[in-house]
Design goal:
Layout lengths: L20 H15 L7 H10 L1 H8 L5 H25 L5 H16 L10 H16 L4 H24 L6 H11 L2 H11 L11 H21 L1 H7 L5 H9 L3 H23 L11 H23 L18
Helix pairs in contact: 1-3, 1-4, 3-4, 3-14, 4-6, 4-9, 5-6, 5-7, 7-8, 7-9, 10-13, 10-14, 12-13, 13-14
C-alpha cells in the first residue's frame, strides 16, 4: 500500500517556509524543555522531539508571519500535539478513563480562562496557562470567549473519540465527517490566525462564505492527515481515519478506500480555491483583512502537506506519550 497523494505536493516549493523557521524551532524545543527538563537528559527522547518538527508546521502554514506571532502559533501547535499524545492516548489506559479525561479538561479550561496553575498541576496545564496568558495579551475584546469555546469544542470531540475507542466502535461515515473538523483542532489554529493578524474578524467569520471556506480548509487538512497517518493508525488500531471509515462503511478494499479518500481530499481543496476566488463578489468580503485571512487558510492547507513529508511523526510513528507527566 502506498499513498496516492501526488509527490509534487510534498516538494518544498509547494509551500514556502517562514524565514524564522529555524529560530522558532530551536525556541520551541527550549520551551518544551522548560516544562519537561528531564527530556534534555534523555538523548533518545530529545531526538524524538526534534524529529517531530512541530514548529515547522506553523512555519510552512504561515510563511509571512512576524517572529513573535509565529512563535505563539508554533507553541500552540506543539501543545496540541503533546495534549493529543500525552493525555488523550494515555488516559485510555487509566481507571475510569472518561472521568479522568473530563477532570483534566475541566482543569485546562479553567487555566485557559485565567485561573492560575497550581504547583501540583501536570506540565501540560502549566504550558496551557502560559499560552492562555500570552494569547489574552494580544486578544481584541470578545476574542478570548470565542477562542476558549473553540478549544472546548476540541476537548468535547476528544471525549467522543475516547468513548469510541473504549467501546471498540468504528464511527459511521456521516458521523465521522461531521466530527472530524473538531477532532483535528484546525479550528483552534484558524482562530489563532485571526489573532496574529491583529484584525478582529468576529463579524466576518459569521458570513456563510467564510464559514464554508474554513470548513473546506479544515477538511482538506484533516483528510490529508488521515491519508498520511493511515499506516500509523492501522498499527495502533485506531478507527478514526477517513480511509478506514470509508473501507468499513462502503465495503471497500483498503487501496480503493485510500483512492476514494484522496479524491475527496483533492475535491475539498479545489472547492476551497474556487470559493476563495469568488470573494470579491460578496459585499464586505473583499477587504484586505478578509483576503489576507483566507490566503493564510490556503497557505495552511499547502503547508500541512509539505510538513507531513518533513515530520517523522507519521513515518516513524512518533508519539509524545512518554512526556505526559511531571515524572517524564
Amino acid at each position: 500500500m502506498s499513498s496516492l497523494l501526488q509527490p509534487s505536493i510534498f516538494e518544498p516549493q509547494a509551500a514556502p517556509i517562514n524565514r524564522y523557521a529555524e529560530l522558532v524551532e530551536r525556541e520551541g524545543i527550549a520551551w518544551v524543555l522548560r516544562f519537561f527538563p528531564s527530556v534534555a537528559l534523555s538523548p533518545g527522547r530529545l531526538r524524538k522531539l526534534q524529529a517531530a518538527k512541530f514548529a515547522r508546521l506553523a512555519a510552512r502554514g504561515l510563511p509571512r508571519a512576524p517572529l513573535a506571532e509565529l512563535r505563539l502559533v508554533c507553541d500552540w501547535i506543539t501543545w496540541l500535539f503533546f495534549y493529543d499524545d500525552a493525555l488523550c492516548d494515555d488516559v485510555a489506559a487509566a481507571p475510569d478513563p472518561l472521568r479522568r479525561l473530563h477532570e483534566a479538561q475541566v482543569r485546562m479550561s479553567a487555566v485557559l480562562r485565567g485561573s492560575p496553575a497550581l504547583e501540583d498541576d501536570e506540565p501540560l496545564v502549566h504550558m496551557l496557562a502560559e499560552l492562555g496568558a500570552r494569547t489574552a495579551a494580544w486578544a481584541a475584546p470578545g476574542f478570548m470567549p470565542r477562542f476558549v469555546a473553540e478549544v472546548e469544542r476540541y476537548f468535547q470531540s476528544n471525549v467522543w473519540e475516547l468513548r469510541n475507542l473504549l467501546h471498540q466502535l468504528r464511527p459511521a461515515l456521516p458521523i465521522y465527517l461531521k466530527m472530524r473538523p473538531f477532532t483535528g483542532a484546525a479550528g483552534v489554529v484558524f482562530a489563532l490566525i485571526e489573532l496574529i493578524r491583529h484584525e478582529s474578524l468576529e463579524e466576518v467569520r459569521q458570513h456563510v462564505v467564510v464559514q464554508q471556506l474554513e470548513l473546506l480548509a479544515n477538511n482538506a487538512i484533516c483528510w490529508a492527515n488521515d491519508i498520511g497517518s493511515l499506516e500509523k493508525e492501522l498499527v495502533e488500531q485506531n478507527p478514526h481515519n477517513l480511509v478506514l471509515v470509508l473501507q468499513a462503511d462502503q465495503g471497500l478494499g483498503l487501496d480503493e478506500a485510500l483512492a476514494r479518500a484522496v479524491a475527496m481530499q483533492s475535491a475539498e481543496e479545489d472547492a476551497f480555491d474556487a470559493l476563495a476566488g469568488s470573494l470579491r463578489d460578496y459585499a464586505g468580503l473583499s477587504s484586505p483583512a478578509v483576503l489576507g485571512y483566507v490566503a493564510d487558510l490556503g497557505s495552511f492547507v499547502r503547508g500541512n502537506f509539505v510538513w507531513m513529508h518533513e515530520t517523522m511523526r507519521y513515518r516513524a510513528r512518533l508519539s509524545m506519550r512518554s512526556y505526559g507527566s511531571a515524572a517524564a
